[in-house]
Design goal:
The complex is a heterodimer of chains A (234) and B (213).
Chain A lengths: L1 E9 L9 E9 L3 E5 L6 H8 L7 E6 L2 E2 L5 H8 L2 E4 L10 H11 L4 H15 L14 H14 L4 E5 L7 H16 L3 E5 L3 H7 L2 E6 L2 E6 L1 H12 L1
Parallel strand pairs in A: 3-8, 3-9, 6-7, 7-8
Antiparallel strand pairs in A: 1-2, 1-4, 4-5, 9-10
Chain B lengths: L1 H35 L1 H13 L5 H12 L14 H37 L4 H29 L2 H7 L9 H11 L2 H30 L1
Helix pairs in contact in B: 1-4, 1-5, 3-4, 3-6, 4-5, 4-6, 5-8, 7-8
Classes of the chains: A alpha/beta (234), B mainly alpha (213).
Amino acid sequence: MSLKLEGIWFKYPGSERWALRNVSTEFREGEVAVITGPNGSGKTTLLKVSALLYRPLRGSVRAWGRDFWRLGSDGKIDLRRKVIYVHEKPILLKGSTLYNLAYGLLLRGYSRSEAFKAADKLIEKLGIAHLRDKPISMLSAGEAQLISILRAMAVNPRLLLLDEPVAHLDLRKRRLMVSMMRELAASGVGCVIATHDYSLAESVADRVMVLEDGSLVADDKPEAILESLREQKA
Amino acid sequence: MIDELFEITIRSLAISGTATLLAGSWSIPSAYLISRSSRLSKILMPIVEAIVGLPTVLVGLLMYMLLCGRGPLGILNLLYTPYAITVGQALLITPLLISTSFRVLAHAQESYGELALTLGATERQAMQLVLVQSLPGLMASIVMSFSRALGELGVALMIGGNIRGYTRVITTAIALEVSRGEFELALMLGGVLVILLVAVSMSLRTLRRLQIA
C-alpha cells in the first residue's frame, strides 16, 4: 500500500506562480525515494502535499486507497498518523529532549509514563543518553535536527518525509541517520527525502526524482539520474 | 497626600488591569481565529493595525457619545464611573492586543500548528499546542496592552470625569494637578507612573527571554 499523487497542481495563496504543475507519482512502503532539484523547484511543497498538510488546487492524493481530501476529520487524523513530515528547520517544543520525543505518543493517547518510557528506549537504542534531559535551548543545530527526526520515528510512521535531513549533521550523526533510514526501509517504512546532497541520495535512494520549476522531469534509479545531474552541475 | 497617591495608584492598577483582562478575553480568541485563515487575516489585519494608534481622546469622545444620557447606552448609567473607564480602556487596547497576539499566533500556527498536524494531533490538540507554545508571546502582548491602558489620558478624562475618590486615576490626577499649578504632587504621580511602566517593560523583557529560551 502507498501514497499516490495524481495530477497535482498547487500554488500558494496570493501567488501567481504554480509551485507544483501536474505532478503524478507514488511513494511506497519499504522504499527510499529522494527528491532533488534546484532551490524553489517545489521539493518542500511536494513533501508537504504528500504529508497531507497542503491541499492541492487540482489533482488527488490517495493514501492507502482513500482519497484524503474527501475524508472527514477522523479519517484525516487516522491517515496523518501514518505519514509524518519532518521540517528542514527543526521545530522543537519548549521542554526537555525526552518530552519532545514523547510528544507524538502523548497525542496518540499514551499515558505520560508509557510515552516517556518509549522515548527512553529510543534514546538508549541510539546511545544519546547525554541528550535525555537537556533543555531544547541548549541543543546544537545538529542535535536539534536529530531529535526532530527521532520524534517522528518514535510514532512508528508508515511513510516518513524528511526535508534536508542531514543539512546540519556532522559526519557521525550523518552516518547514524543513513543507517537509520536503511533500517526503516528494511522494516517496511517508506522514506521520502528532499535534498540537494547527491552523496546522500547515492547512499540511501532506491529511486531519485528530479523537480524543475514545479514539474517532475525525471524519476528513475539513482545510478541513471545522479550521473547526469553531476555532469550538468560540472 | 501619600494616602491619596496610594489610593489613586491602586485604582489605576485595578481599572487598567481589569480592562486588560476584559480586552484579552475577546482579543486573543479573535486573534487565534484570524490567524487560522489567511483570507480573513488579509482583510482584517490592515484595518486592525491602522486603528492601533487611534487617539485616546477620539475613543473617549465616541464612548462619551455612547454612554451619555441621550446616547444609545445612556440607560446603563455608566458615564463617570470606573466601569466606564474600564470598558473604554478595554476597547482602546483591543486593536493593539489583537495585532500583537496575531503576530505571535500566526507564527506559532505556521510552525507548531503544522507540527501538531503532521504528528497526528486532533484540531483541539493542535490548538492547545499553539496556545501553550505562544504563551510567553501572548503574555508579552497582554503586558504591553496593560501598559498602554495605564498610561492613557483621553478615555479616563472624558468618560471617567476625574472624580476624586471615585474615578481619579494617575494620568487624570497629573493633568489636574498641573492645571492647578501643584507640580509637587503631579511629579510624584508622574514618578509612580514611570516606575509602573518601567516595571511593566522589565517584565516584558523577561517574558521575551523566556520565549527565546
